[in-house]
Amino acid sequence: MLLYYVYSFHNMTKQDQCWQCQKSMILSIFCTLCKNGSHIRFTPVSKKPSGIWAYWICKECVSLFPFSILDDEFASYLMDSHDSKHLDIDNMLFNPFEDWSMFASQATLGSHTDIDTYTSSVLDYINTTIDSVTTWKQITTYPNQKPWMNKEVRLLLKARNTAFRSDDAMAYSVSRANLRRGIIKAKHCYKLKVEEHFSNSDPRRMWQGIQAISDYKPRNSTPITTDVSFLNELNHFYACFDRDNRETQTTTRPPADNQPLSLTSTDVHAALSRINARKAAGPDGTPGRVLRACAEQLTGVFTDIFNLSLAQAAVPACFKATSIVPVPKHSSPTGLNDYRPVALTPIIMKCFERLVLAHLKNCLPPTLDPFQFAYRSNRSTEDAVSTALHSVLTHLDNNNTYARMLFVDFSSAFNSVIPSKLNTKLGDLGFNSSLRHWIMDFLTNRPQYVRSGHTCSTTITLNTGVPQGCVLSPFLYSLFTHDCRPVHGSNTIIKFADDTAVIGLISNNDDTAYREEVQHLAAWCADNNLLLNTSKTKEIIVDFRRERGSTHNPIHINGMAVERVSSFKFLGTHITEDLSWSTNTSSLVKKAHQRLFFLRTLKRHHLSSAVLMNFYRCVIESILTSSVSVWYGNCSVADRKALQRVVKTAQRITRCPLTAIEDVQRKRCLRRAHGILKDSSHPAHRLFTLLPSGRRFRSLQTRTSRLRNSFFPRAVSLLNSTPRTLNSVSLSLSLSLSAPC
């Protein structure tokens, strides 16, 4: 069956501009007239490299419709065409997206459908239809252009300059006064516009206005070099782990009796409807706005493609194409390692990944490592840090003890994952073979290139790593490291994605188990192709004994000594060897003071108190209360006063009452405690046990104030002091979870 494209012309003569637009196109194709003579049918004589028939569109008055010459409703289909001059963009997008069966039929040979041909045909048709109805406009903006600058102000500015050149002092004085009044009026109008966005619950446009007024976090317009040789070098640098992968990639089909995952049209429609229309399009060029606006029309064809991909355990090649955007890790990058590779993949593939991810999360076994805190519900960085500190503080409450904390750094952890090893581990976790083969195909034979602006490197194919920027990648990495567990009961390994901390609880100066644990971790990394960066790996030793005995010997990894430091920033929180929080508090107060400048700038522009309070809560309070439940209980009086001084300063600027840091900490402690009570798989759930009366929780045994003021003992105390009316729900949930199954 051949595929034709119809161009509908209405009352068009050779003198029309559109006819002149089509005249040059007709020279390169063979055209025949329909019987009624009012439509032109174009038969393409060549194919594009992807196998899609070539076609041309006049953007002004041509409406594009696919059809089969064997279709009995051909004539009526043509008569139902509309003049594109009278259609808005949405209708012009909706109308073509109707019959998709022809694409599947064209890609089917016998009983097998070529998933690559099918998918690329659909995407090419969507992109061509988008091009036919899209009007491109070029808008020039300047870095020093003020957001309130409008047409009236430009005219007044032009009038002032004219008066200045005329040497008329009176006219110049009047024009200056008019310009001053015009600027004041324009600023007032812009302020009202920002406040209107706040009143209309449009936070995105409100924050755009606030950022424009205060110049908060301006975008760095300095582009990365567009030298092709540098981009090629960067692309091969990102593929360095692929060169070390000696495993042969083989394509195997899942067993016929294995039931593949099947997605419903309802799920696909929901995923398309939730697309962020402002996200950048991937290498396929299909924008998220179209996928979201035409979700109802595109649900059927993409449901068919997704289920066909899962049934064949094969991901279309156009879905796996990756455009790497190098993001500098520092303000002044000096080497290739200073650029973080962020993968830009097709938006429709991200929707597909989200649907698969939801299924993977539902299939997680209960034996999964509870100390992996990333990408799991009811887990956060606060849980990871507080769990690590609680194990240390509890151990230090005993006599003749100290603790060593090793903060491990990996080199390009995501890029070094071997798909075949991941496939084996997924099988150990109980995932069916069909889904495992689909994930294997997703991670192998990935075309990749590096893009900077409009310049691209050459394309290479990778078979190693989980690309950063994909939806599935962080979750797959956490599953890849699920078997990285301590071999000694006195040690704990805390993981949050690739941020890893090894905690050794040492008694009587015997650190043998801790040193064996570190060597076991190094061996595990070597077996799993993960490269330890010893130069960035740091160690903190927490020892409060008066007589510390001999000097602590350093840890060696792969023959290199690990540097011992007095402070380390782990998951956004500064941890020191004396477990004091002055360093952490000083860092937070410094950041908050820097952001007070922007709050004062907004105040000078006379924004309302509601907008100022919103800015304070989102920009300043969020900094002051970062992981506040972890460290605030053990803060010194001086540190608490320093935090509260920032709040008082912001209160004077906004002229509104603001919540004290202590009250925020109390609310967050209670909220975290309630979340842990509801989650029996949380590693800290065992710390909350009810007394026989069923009305209060058992207090944790503490000997020092350091442990008593830490999060978990303090959370138990807050739960017990909470009024019964507020605590009854948590008690009933805890009782139901504690009951035997």
From TrEMBL:
Signal sequence interval, chain numbering: none
Biological source species: Labrus bergylta
Example GO molecular function: methyltransferase activity
Reverse transcriptase domain span: 308-575
A Pfam family annotated for this UniProt entry: ALKBH8_N
Name used for this protein in its record: Reverse transcriptase domain-containing protein
InterPro entries documented for this protein: AlkB_hom8_N, DNA/RNA_pol_sf, RT_dom
Listed PROSITE patterns: RT_POL
